[in-house]
Amino acid sequence: xxxxxxxxxxxxxxxxxxxxxxxxxxxxxxxxxxxxxxxxxxxxxxxxxxxxxxxxxxxxxxxxxxxxxxxxxxxxxxxxxxxxxxxxxxxxxxxxxxxxxxxxxxxxxxxxxxxxxxxxxxxxxxxxxxxxxxxxxxxxxxxxxxxxxxxx
Length: 152
What we know:
By secondary structure, the chain is of the alpha/beta class. The protein has helices at residues 48-61, 76-83, 86-92, 106-116, 133-147, and strands spanning 8-19, 22-32, 35-46, 68-73, 120-125. Helix content is 36%, strand content 31%. A five-stranded mixed sheet has the order 3-2-1-4-5. The termini are far apart.
C-alpha cells in the first residue's frame, strides 16, 4: 500500500438542547486547507448529550477518505470519553459504566466509533462560550436550529 500523508482536517462541533430532554440542535464546521463547511441539524425530542454526539457523527460523515483529524468540542461528555478512555472501559464491560448501568446513547457511541476507525484522531477540549470563534459559531448553528422552530 502506498504510504501517503493524510490530509489534516479540523472539526469543530457543538450541541444544544432547549430543555433536557427537549428540542435539540447541533452544529459543526469542517476545515481543510482554507476551505470551511458548516452544517447543522435538529431533533424534536432529544438530549444535550445526543446532540453533542450527533454534531461529531454528522461531521465525520462528510469525510470521503481517511484523514488526520483534530476534533474540537466543549463537551466533556464526548471528549473525555476518549481522553480519559471511558470508551475502552465501557466496551470491555459490555457497554456498562462504572456504576454497572448501561451506557447512555450506546447507538451513537457505536456509530461514532465505527466512523472514527479509519481516521487518525486527536481530541481537543475547548472552553465553551468563551473566546474560540469556531466553537462560538458551532454554538450559534446549534441554537439557531432550535430557535427556527420555537413558537412565538
